Amino acid sequence: MNSNITLIVADDHPILLNGLVNQLKDYNYEVLAVAENGAVALDKIMDLKPDIAVLDEQMPLLTGFEVIQKCKEKGSDTKFIILSSHKEKAFVYKAKKLNIWGYILKDEPFEELHNCIQSVHKGTPYFSLVFDTIFNDEVAPQMQKLKLLSASERTIVKLVAEGKSTKDIAELLSLSMRTIDKHRSNIISKLGLVKEKDILTNWAKENIEFVNY
Question: For the segment 81-132, what is each residue's pLDDT rounded down to a tens digit?
Fold first, then answer.
């Protein structure tokens, strides 16, 4: 029975929140509480200890990801499902890094969320099909490439993403500009990038989320 599964639901859009809660109740889920911002969601999760928390990713005060991180730091046993409109690889990466149990896109039918809750409650993660596609086709390959870089090369990529010039990086790392240029060339080769103007800068800014993986 779904009534054995306790939930907390958080979304900063009242109409969407009410509609979602009504659908969950129609499926006999026990909704312990709702929240319209991340701070309230965090308090209710820690206080009520639901089996599962269904969180909008973008909320005031704390995002869904920030709520999850803080709950984990506090030792919460609640399992988390993120609801999001975002398909960008940075969001997919963050979700994987936090080891969340589910990630469902808001434009999918309610049945997908229901399937996700059922799967997560049984101990099996559940993600939207497009989520897995983005992770396998876009995120995982970049993470594999980054594993080819040395610690110093990762540092350089991070500094490049922050907009630092070769001269800036050389001064920060107490190395010559020639050495930094050589590192940049090696990084471009390891990442399989085409050697053209600003290619490393553009790649680093686009993939900054993965650098510290």
Answer: 999 887 777 777 778 778 889 999 888 899 999 999 999 999 999 998 888 7
pTM: 0.73
Considering only CA atoms, which of 117, 114, 102, 6 is closest in space to residue 57? 102
Q: 2-140 and 147-210: same fold?
A: no
User: What are the extents of the domains in the chain?
Assistant: 2-140, 147-210
Per DSSP, which regions of 36-173 are E strands?
52-56, 79-84, 102-105, 126-127
C-alpha span between 14 and 16 (Å, rounded): 6
d(CA 62, CA 139): 25
Indicate the pLDDT class of residue 3, thresholds 50, 70 and 90. Answer: low
Q: Which positions ≥6 away from 46 have C-beta within 8 Å? A: 71, 74, 76
Q: Give me the architecture of the 2-140 domain, per CATH.
A: 3-Layer(aba) Sandwich (3.40)
Question: In angstroms, rounded to a whole number, what is the distance separating the alpha carbons of residues 35 and 42?
Answer: 9
Integer angstrom CA distances of residue 138 from 77, 88, 175, 207, 210: 30, 10, 33, 10, 11
DSSP 163-210: T--HHHHHHHHT--HHHHHHHHHHHHHHHT----TTHHHHHHHHTGGG
Amino acid at 209: E
The fold of 147-210 is Arc Repressor Mutant, subunit A (1.10.10)
pLDDT in tens, 176-189: 999 999 999 999 98
